[in-house]
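Database export, one record per block. Field names are fixed; values are copied verbatim from the stored entry.
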Amino acid sequence: TRYMTGEVDQNISPMRVDRVSLDPMLDDNNGQGLTLHTTHGDLGAIWHEAPESLQAVVLASGSGGGFNGPGRVFYTQFAEDLRQIGISALRVDYRHPADLIPRGLDVLGGIDFLKSKSYGPVVVVGHSFGGAVAIAAGAASPHCCGVISLAGQTQGAYRAGMVSPRPLLIVHGERDTRLPVLCAIQI
């Protein structure tokens, strides 16, 4: 199976979502909490569904995990803004926040969920360490049509060339106090 490393790894099997259940504990003011029951364990998610649309994004946070991306509440507002213009958004949590391969598999599980709901190819957005996760998952999934890295780090982002021919957007501020803009240039 070629997932996350770009090589055959007998210890990693693709993540597949077997069933989904509502999870009111994960709800926020705008999205529906879900538990994706996968072949690799349960994965928390918050679903911002745009009715009558088959466009969707998966949002991956930074190294701490959780559902929020930059600025702690950006993904919540971003998901709602996308929903308002007809794009559904799935915010995924991580089973193992500091480990690239399981996190990438979690994003692939989110992509599998959207594919099972008949969403067209999706865009994956990641912030900070999630930028590297988004790049890795986007490179590994044929159901991804583009990747966006927001202030992404370089560790784990070496798969950026594997995203091609799909678009890869790198966004990074010159005044970033955590990761220098050099990270974006290197990616």
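Remark 1: Confidence is low (pLDDT under 50) at residues 1-11.
Remark 2: Helices lie at 74-84, 100-116, 129-140, 160-163, 182-186.
End of record.
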